[in-house]
Amino acid sequence: MRIQVHSLEEPALQVYSRLTEAQLRNRLEPDKGIFIAESPKVIRVALEAGCQPLSLLTEEDHLETLAADIVPRLGDVPVYTGTRELLASLTGYELTRGVLCAMRRPQLPSVEEVCREAHRVVVVDNVVNSTNTGAIFRAAAGLGIDGVLLTPTCCDPLNRRSVRVSMGTVFQLPWTYLPASQGEAFERLHALGFKVAAMALSARAVSVDDPALRREERLAIVMGTEGDGLPDSTIDRCDYVVKIPMSRGVDSLNVAAAAAVAFWQLRYSRERL
C-alpha cells in the first residue's frame, strides 16, 4: 500500500522523525518495541533474518530503483513516499540512501540458546557507543565469532546507528543480554563449558597469540568499555587475561579495532594448535 506524504509531521511518520531510541525500544512492553533499519542493504538482511516490517519510508524515485526488490516483499505494509527534499530533513539522511524501514524488535534468545553450538562468543561489557557496538558486531560476524553476549549497560545493538554501522550483521549473529549480576553471568558461562578471556592490560596478561588460547574448545572473549576498559572485578573472574602486543609506545587500540584483532587471532579451528 503506497502512500505519498508531504510532511514528516504526519502521525504515521513519528516513528521515523519524532520518537527517541528509548521510546522505540519500549522497555515496558518489549513485544511492542520497534527499530529502524536504514539503507536497502540493511533492510534486505533484516527481512532475510525474519524481522517483521511495519512500514517503509523512501524517496519516490527509489520505488523503481534502490527499493524495487524490497517493496514486493512487504505485502500490505504501508510504503510512504516523499520527495528528496522532505527526506533530507531527517537527521543522517545522507547515510540512509533514502530508504528506511520500521520493524518489530525480534524476541531475544536465552544465553543458553546463543551458546549451545558456539565455540567462540564475545562478551561486550558496558560498551555504550553505538558506532563501536555496530563495528564489534560486524567484526564478530566476519571473523568467526558464533554469538554475542552483552551486559545490560551496553548500547542497544538495534540502535539506528549501531544497525547501520554493523551493515545488518546484528540480524545474522545470535545475541542476547547476560544477567546483571556479574557473578551469575560468569557462573553461566563456566557451566556452559566456556573459559573466559579478558582483553585487558595487566601484569598477568598473555599475548593474544599464546597457543593455549587457540587450544580452548570454547572461549568467551570479554571486551570492555571505551576508555577505561574492564574493571578489576571482571578481570579477576576471568580464566585468562589477554593483551595485544603494541609498538611505538601505543598502549591499546579502540575497542572495535581490538575486537577485530582478537577475533581473528582467537578464531576456532578444528585443527587447533
Structure commentary:
With 273 residues, the chain is α/β, with parallel strands linked by helices. The protein contains twelve helices and twelve strands. Strands 8-7-6-11-9-12-10 form a seven-stranded parallel β-sheet. It has a five-stranded mixed β-sheet with strand order 1-4-3-5-2. Helix 7 links the parallel strand 6 and strand 7. The radius of gyration is 20 Å and the shape is elongated.
Features:
single chain, 273 residues, alpha/beta, 5-stranded mixed sheet, 30% helix, elongated
Strand content: 15-25%
Distance between the termini: 57 Å
Mean pLDDT: 89
User: What is the helix fraction of residues, given as a range?
Assistant: 25-40%
Q: What's the count of strands?
A: 12
Largest sheet: 7 strands, parallel
As a whole number of angstroms, the C-alpha radius of gyration is 20 Å
Q: Structural class of the secondary structure composition?
A: alpha/beta
Coarse shape:
elongated
Uncertain residue segments: 91-95
User: Count of helices?
Assistant: 12
Which helices and strands, and how do they pair?
Layout lengths: L1 E3 L9 H4 L3 H5 L8 E5 L1 H9 L4 E7 L19 E4 L1 H4 L5 H4 L2 E6 L6 H5 L4 E5 L5 H13 L4 E4 L9 H6 L9 E3 L4 H10 L3 E5 L6 E2 L3 H5 L3 E5 L8 H6 L2 E4 L11 H11 L8
Parallel strand pairs: 1-4, 3-4, 6-7, 6-11, 7-8, 9-11, 9-12, 10-12
Antiparallel strand pairs: 2-5, 3-5
